[in-house]
């Protein structure tokens, strides 16, 4: 019966869609798909693309699609194509910038374990008072200038950062597999120290570094786990991953730090927080957003590294709602690493 209804609906739709329109719909709009691929290859010169799942949207007045950049492993994006003006809207540019940013610091993570997952982000920023300045001189703000710089296909990421570092802010969220041993703990601390020193050397507007350490069962990799999760639920996201007990139960340590060093040429929102009129609250937030600036040794890192008290157990983070449990690192019960026996063993290893 369901099949008959589907066939009937399709037959009734033919006069409305037209025979050619129906054929395009059934075959996935092959001519449009080819146009999208050519437009993407023109937009990102040197890259090859594969386009699929093309569908027409009357509300949009164009086509929605999914695509893969074959020049970048597993880089996919949804997008829209407006045939009349031959315009394509997609996220490949931002994704590629993030991957190019990740490539600069990934070796530090691989030194701990190649079984890792890194979520990078690189973006622009504005100084305090930028709105008033823009209203006065009517020129593009520094965030927009930075976006243009980051999108420049003729420059390497190193060159972009060297030129626009004052108004570039970055994030690096790292998930890495390492057994809970003094030897691995030392490697993780050295990784954090190296990453922080590297980010600091770039003289960025600001940066965020978040690290979660796992002791995964043999044979389990982050890549395979994500692939399986997406196969089961196409909408599975990083937010889902961070609160997914089936993988987060293997996490045993966490750290999150922020860098926002003083710049004598302009003021930054991250180390001024002028919008907060409560002085105590303002100073507390500034301290939080400049935590990486005060790291100068392994001890400084160990003070901020969370060693989970009960690995494998989520936190009941809302006493008024016992069913509200979570796996987010900031909420898991912990002991500062510096106060633990394993850190004493780390120091013994370091001093050998």
Which features characterize this protein?
single chain, 43% helix, 14 helices, 352 residues, four-stranded antiparallel beta sheet, 2 domains, disordered N terminus, six-stranded mixed beta sheet, Nuclear Transport Factor 2, Chain: A, alpha+beta
Summary, kept brief:
With 352 residues, the chain is of the alpha+beta class. It contains 14 helices and twelve strands.
Description:
- The chain is α+β, with helices and mostly antiparallel strands.
- It folds into two domains: 89 residues, Nuclear Transport Factor 2, Chain: A (Roll), CATH 3.10.450; 256 residues, no CATH class.
- The chain has 14 helices and twelve strands.
- The protein has a six-stranded mixed beta sheet. Strands 1-2-3-4 form a four-stranded antiparallel beta sheet.
- Helix 1 crosses helix 2 and helix 8 packs across helix 14.
- The longest helix has 20 residues.
- It is globular and about 65 Å long.
- The relative contact order is 0.08.
- The N terminus is likely disordered.
The biggest sheet amounts to: 6 strands, mixed
Q: How many independent structural domains?
A: 2
- Span of the ends, CA to CA: 77 Å
Count, helices: 14
The number of E-state strands comes to 12
Q: Which descriptor suits the 3D outline?
A: globular
Order of helices and strands: HHHEEEEHEHHHEHEHHHEHHEEEEH
Measured by DSSP, the beta-strand proportion falls in 15-25%
Stretches where pLDDT is under 50 for at least 5 consecutive residues are 1-23
Structural topology:
Layout: H1 2-17, H2 19-27, H3 30-43, E1 49-57, E2 62-69, E3 75-82, E4 87-90, H4 92-110, E5 116-124, H5 130-137, H6 142-150, H7 157-164, E6 168-177, H8 182-201, E7 206-214, H9 222-232, H10 238-242, H11 245-248, E8 251-259, H12 279-289, H13 298-304, E9 306-308, E10 315-316, E11 325-326, E12 334-336, H14 341-350
Helix pairs in contact: 1-2, 8-14
